[in-house]
């Protein structure tokens, strides 16, 4: 497998986003709320990376995220793989340049990832307080993921340009 080498800076950006989200959640802990911001991680990679680079980006980003979140091994990697597959299926409809569609995809993926994590956590605690907190966390997460996604996509493009990679390379022409 000959991988598109843009996966490395994209995985680094994903790790940065997940680390920043963990730091924000640490600051929000006294109020017993948290935000979930993993939605944007696979949008740009799913739209523009070839299969080899995308697989590497999913693995590295997912494993780094699992180190920060209490989830079973492989859970976030699987979610990222499913999210990337969903993004890949949208390629013909949204193209690769529409920022508003990328933000909508990030918003939808964030809700799906949050639902999966909440479903897993509900096996351990399904009290009324759990569901109230989950509703508040979902609302906050979905509110904050919109501006974060805009910033994050701009960050990814800036990092790729800084590293000398082509930003708009088509996945069909990627190695």
What does it look like?
The protein has 175 residues and is an all-alpha fold. It has a single domain, classed as Arp2/3 complex 21 kDa subunit ARPC3 (Orthogonal Bundle). It is built from six helices and no strands. α4 packs antiparallel against α5 (99-122) and α5 runs antiparallel to α6 (128-162). It is globular and about 50 Å long. The N and C termini lie close together (9 Å). The model has no long low-confidence stretch (mean pLDDT 86).
List keywords for this structure.
175 residues, mainly alpha, Arp2/3 complex 21 kDa subunit ARPC3, 6 helices, 71% helix, 0% strand
Strand and helix map with partners:
Layout: H1 7-28, H2 43-48, H3 51-68, H4 75-94, H5 99-122, H6 128-162
Helix pairs in contact: 1-3, 1-6, 3-4, 4-5, 5-6
Percent range for β-strand residues: under 5%
**Main sheet: strands, sense, barrel:** none
Count of DSSP H/I helices:
6
How would you spell out the order of helices and strands? HHHHHH
Domains, number: 1
Tally the beta strands. Answer: 0
Q: Please, what is the average pLDDT?
A: 86
Low-confidence parts, pLDDT < 50 over ≥5 residues? none
CATH arch. level architecture: Orthogonal Bundle
Please identify the top-level CATH class: Mainly Alpha
What helical percentage do the residues reach?
over 70%
CATH topology: Arp2/3 complex 21 kDa subunit ARPC3
Structural class of the secondary structure composition? Answer: mainly alpha
């Amino acid at each position: 497998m000959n991988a598109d080498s843009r996966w490395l800076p994209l995985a680094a950006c994903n790790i940065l986003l997940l680390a920043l989200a963990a730091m924000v959640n640490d600051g929000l802990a006294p109020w017993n709320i948290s935000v979930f911001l993993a939605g944007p991680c696979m949008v740009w990679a799913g739209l523009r990376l070839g299969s080899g680079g995308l697989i590497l980006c999913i693995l590295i980003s997912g494993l780094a995220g699992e180190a920060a979140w209490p989830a079973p091994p492989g859970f976030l990697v699987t979610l990222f793989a499913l999210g990337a597959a969903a993004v890949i299926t949208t390629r013909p409809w949204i193209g690769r340049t529409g920022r508003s569609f990328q933000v909508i995809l990030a918003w939808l993926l964030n809700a799906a990832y949050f639902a999966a994590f909440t479903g897993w956590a509900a096996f351990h605690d399904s009290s009324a307080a759990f569901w109230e907190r989950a509703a508040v966390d979902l609302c906050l997460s979905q509110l904050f993921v919109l501006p974060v996604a805009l910033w994050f996509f701009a960050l990814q493009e800036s990092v790729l340009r800084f590293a000398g990679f082509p930003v708009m390379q088509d996945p069909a022409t990627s190695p």
